[in-house]
Amino acid sequence: MIIPPERNLNALYREMEWLSMVINQVICSYLKQDGYENHWLEIPPPSLEQNDSLFANLMLEWELNTFERLALDLALAPAIRPEVLDILFGMNQMIERGFSEFGGITDKAFSGFIPTGQTLNFLVTANDPQWRLEVMYILSPHHRLMAEQVTELLPVDPALPDWAGVFKASESWLNYLITGEQIRPELSTSFPAHILETPLQWEDLVLDYRVMNQVEEIRAWLAYGATLMHEWHLDQKVKPGFRAVFFGPPGTGKTLTAALLGQSTGRAVYRVDLSMVVSKYIGETEKNLAKVFDAASYKDWILFFDEADALFGKRTEATSSNDRHANQQTGYLLQRIEDFPGTVILATNLKANMDEAFTRRFQSMIQFAIPGSEERLQLWRNAFDNVCELSPEIQLQHIAAEFEVTGGQIVNILRQCALQAIRRGARVVRRDELLNSIRQEFLKDNKTIKLN
User: Fold this and answer.
1) Which residue range(s) make up the domain with 92?
2) pLDDT by residue (tens digit) across 379-408?
3) Is residue 283 part of a domain?
4) Domain count, the chain
5) Residue 123 domain-assigned?
6) With bands split at pLDDT 50, 70 and 90, how would you rate the model's confidence at 182?
7) Where is the AAA+ ATPase domain (predicted)?
8) pLDDT in tens, 122-143
């Protein structure tokens, strides 16, 4: 059901009215002003009905409580109705300055009150200190609002309290709550992963039949795993989730297989950007990776780690602080993968580089070898289909039998042949062009071939 933006905006404005009343009551109770004996929880929030607004749908689907609702409203306020926060600029007459406990910051480019984590803490705990645990949970990276980047607590100088950071709603989620445009987590330091997609279909996947049988087992788990775990009570015997390792030379189909497993089962596949995850600073690698796992734990995603030995490589003897740091990272990653309820696929060129502590805990270890002549023939045919025509003098069966190339290399050769053909103003690839393109591909690996 499409909800008009006007209804979504009206719902957010109603939330701001409720937030304003809550803030006024909290301050009233805190400063013992007239009406202080009342409590902000007695102020009824706007009613929530399915499909009344995207905000209502989010609240109902995620089953957020009143504290979480207050947090989301506070984070949205500067973008929706900044004036509802102006009362937090109040002056403490005893010291002739603002109230430290209100938190918040100001900026030259924005004259309004910008809430911080401390602001949320004040609203929730000012008159009920025991509710600090609620705030700790809402501001933790494991909370769904934070994990899915709906809200964010910006980092601060290490010398400052963590809750001194700005507490804000993301622009992408704000846009979604108004317009309904679907959002995806964006590749950033706060989410070092990006969506992995392919225009190909499952039928385009060409693998040795033994490899395909193993891949089909993963596909079956994606289709029936939930039934096995909950209805067949397999959850009483094994941990949730599925863990697989794809190993083999580049271009043999590891990444494509991961993308097609997601596409064919209706799941998003997120490829973790290792360059943004791995950090030389102690604790940062774990922190970066935790953001991905925390977000994915609320989704039915497949997490794909390419060149995984950079993160999951063999541990060394702890002879230095760097060794201990690396081993600590490895142990942490192993635990997160074991506890992750979804599907994790690690890809590496060399199985020997992988730590055995990881590999023995994986349900599937699949070797992607250089395709055989039959698979290569199919790959050649698939590659040139609907792109280029082949000269009658080219016998693909002979080409497939003679040259040991991967699917990735065949795509590179196709690109080179297509460029040569279009430069001639033709669509037919000549035999000499194909053979020269094959030779160029082999030269990348310092290999030479004889062309007849």
Assistant:
1) 5-179
2) 999 999 989 999 999 999 999 999 999 999
3) yes
4) 3
5) yes
6) confident
7) 240-372
8) 999 999 999 999 999 999 988 9
Q: Is residue 196 part of a domain?
A: no
Do 293 and 379 fall within a single domain? no
Strand arrangement of the beta sheet that strand 302-305 belongs to:
193-195, 269-272, 302-305, 343-348, 242-247, 364-367
* Shared-domain flag, residues 20 and 65: yes
CB-neighbour burial class of residue 314 (10 A; exposed 0-12, middle 13-18, buried 19+) = middle
Q: Establish how many alpha carbons lie within 13 A of residue 221's alpha carbon, considering only the half-sphere containing its beta carbon.
A: 20
Residue where the block lists tokens 């409580």: 65
Q: Measure the CA–CA gap between 46 and 18, rounded to whole angstroms.
A: 7
Q: Are residues 344 and 396 in the same domain?
A: no
Determine the Cα–Cα distance for residues 88 and 115; give it in Å rounded to an integer. 9
Q: Based on the domain organization, do 352 and 386 belong to the same domain? A: no
Residues in the chain: 452
- The reply to whether 232 and 139 lie within a common domain is no
Tokens for 34?
A: 């007239």
Q: Which two tokens stand for residue 78?
A: 């500067």
In angstroms, the Cα distances linking 113 to 26, 104, 137, 271, 331 are 17, 6, 24, 38, 43
Cβ pair 307, 348 in contact under 8 A: yes
